[in-house]
Design goal:
The chain is an alpha+beta fold. Among the domains are: 105 residues; 307 residues, Kinesin (3-Layer(aba) Sandwich), CATH 3.40.850. It has 15 helices and 18 strands. Strands 1, 5, 6, 7, 8, 9, 12, 15, 16, 17 and 18 form an eleven-stranded mixed sheet that branches. A three-stranded antiparallel sheet has the order 2-3-4, covered by helices on one side. Strand 7 and strand 8 form a beta hairpin. Helix 1 runs antiparallel to helix 2, helix 3 crosses helix 4 and helix 7 packs antiparallel against helix 8. The protein is elongated and about 165 Å long. The N and C termini lie far apart (143 Å). Minus-end microtubule-dependent motor protein. Involved in apically targeted transport. Required for zonula adherens maintenance. Its main location: other. GO terms for molecular function: ATP binding; microtubule binding; microtubule motor activity. InterPro entries: Kinesin-like_fam, Kinesin_motor_CS, Kinesin_motor_dom, Kinesin_motor_dom_sf, P-loop_NTPase. Pfam families: Kinesin.
Length: 728
Amino acid sequence: QVETLKEKLLEQAQEISRLRSELGGTDVEKHRDLLAAENERLRQEMKACETELRELQRQQQAPCRDCPHLQENARLQEQLSQLQREAEETRAKLVELDLEVQQKTNRLAEVELRLKDSLAERAEEEERLSRRLRDSQETIASLKSQPPQIKYIIKTVEVESAKAKQALCETQSRNQYLQEQVGMQKQVLKEMEQQLQSSQKTEAQLRAQIMMYEAELERAHGQMLEEMQAMEEEKNHAIEEAFSRAQVEMKAVHENLAGVRTNLLTLQPALRTLTHDYNCLKRQVRDFPLLLQETLRSARAEISQAIEEVHSTNRELLRKYRRELQLRKKCHNELVRLKGNIRVFGRVRPITKEDGEGPEAANAVTFDADDDAVLYLLHKGKQVSFELDKVFPPQASQEEVFQEVQALVTSCIDGYNVCIFAYGQTGAGKTYTMEGTAANPGINQRALQLLFSEVRGKAADWDYTITVSAAEIYNEALRDLLGKEPQEKLEIKLCPDGSGQLYVPGLTEFRVQSVEDINKVFEFGHLKRATECTNLNEHSSRSHALLIVTVRGLDRSTGLRTTGKLNLVDLAGSERVGRSGAEGSRLREAQHINKSLSALGDVIYALRSRQGHVPFRNSKLTYLLQDSLSGDSKTLMMVQVSPAEKNSSETLCSLKFAERVRSVELGPVSRKAELGSWPSQEHLEVLKTRLGDSPGSSASPGRGHASPSPGQLSSRSASIRRKLQTSG
């Protein structure tokens, strides 16, 4: 019951607040009515102002109906339309205020209805509470009158029976219960009195708030009235200013019109002159396209002629430049031959699927379109240029590469020592260039085929013997690839004939007489060479391979003997252990390979700087190449590079090493030829027959050849010896 009473008291407080808002709503309605009346009055005044403006416009347009200068009038009309827009904005503000007053009126009506309902409910609740209060008071009065009787009954029943005692106990418990109920009712009554006091305080506070809201509403209404009055004054002031300004401007327009009329009278001659000039210009403009087309046609002809002359000049210059480039290259090659420089060719392999995809597999090597001896490397964002003796792009074939080296190979037949070795990082294509494949052979097999072809061409005068040896340097050990025991280690020693040449005792030599013999030798040696798979190359060469071709020739007519040696070297590739993933025996092999290549670099540095001591014996590789690098051989280095971006560091090192090798001068090359025992009388007869047509011999007409005297024969023998010595 106490909880329900609390809820009802809260509802009553809400109803009281609603009633107070309704009481204030009557004043709001009064203000609304006042605002509506004021709005209606302003509308009427606005309509009157509009009619006055229309009348003014008609009055202003009447005298100027025939005037040609209506621009000022249009400007005044724009000003009037601007004033009308301002009036429309004022009207819109009044409509917004009207809507706001209407909304407040609706809210006040709702509050009034709620207040009436709450007042009725409050009256009913007060009636019910008053009835319960009267009942409680009657109950309390009756209970107050009962206790003396109970005491008396208790005293008199003390001597009665057990039933009476039981009834007495029940009565006592009932009395106690009633006393508790009375206490509870008193407490509830006290709480209700407190709630009534708090509701009265709340009612006083709400009345104070209602009065404050009414004061704020009156102040807002006053401000709105003041703003409307100020807007109306501004509107009237603007209309007056516009009207006065229009009158002043109309007067100025009339004055300007008079001045314009006088000016028109004076400007008529000038107008005739301008019309004549205009007609002349019009004729010129009409003829201008034809003149322009003619001028453009002649200009195009002159420009095209100049461009054609420039193109012809450029073609002539390019032709001369290429001719001079070929001449310079020819002179350079001759200078290299005379100085004994190591010739350096570069070959760039194509991008393969093993290089992967993405930025790391991008092409970092470019070529010069006009100079086939220059290439460019893009390393860490910078372009580095290198100049070699010849550069082969990725699309160059094995045949094109061999055409550049076949002159060196054929000089082997004439008794010169020739060395061709391939250098570069692992996976750069060294073995492919030197050995090739069965369908597309490399330098090794093509060189021997060329030697056989040259030998067959000279078979009428010369007897040649071609022998082939194959060896490899594996972990600083020299092994015979054609021997029965390839694991046997060989040693390099000086020739006992005192020539200073090096040879390998016990190295197997096979005499080859046909291409089939070559293929057998290559297949037999290739099977025994050490190759393994690494992270950088699936078939990585783990040793330095050397193919030694010895060509011995005998001139049957003169007894001249020549010995030429062709060393074809496929060096193992330099590699970084971290990238190749070499471990165990692969790691030991990589260490020996890098050590021997480092020793080769030391030898090149010593030769380039012309040091007194060249460390050939620091490695088996450099010791075996001593004959080729010490000025007694024609040497060619084929540097192989990879164009992939991820290998740019290794490519840079290889190309720098190639430039250093190219600057090494070994001196002029000597020919290995010796004159054997002097030929017999039969040989001399053959020589005499061959020399019969020489200018020194004479024959009488109608007779045979005269037999030379012993003096003449001895002089011819001496001349032959001088020729052989000169050719040697």
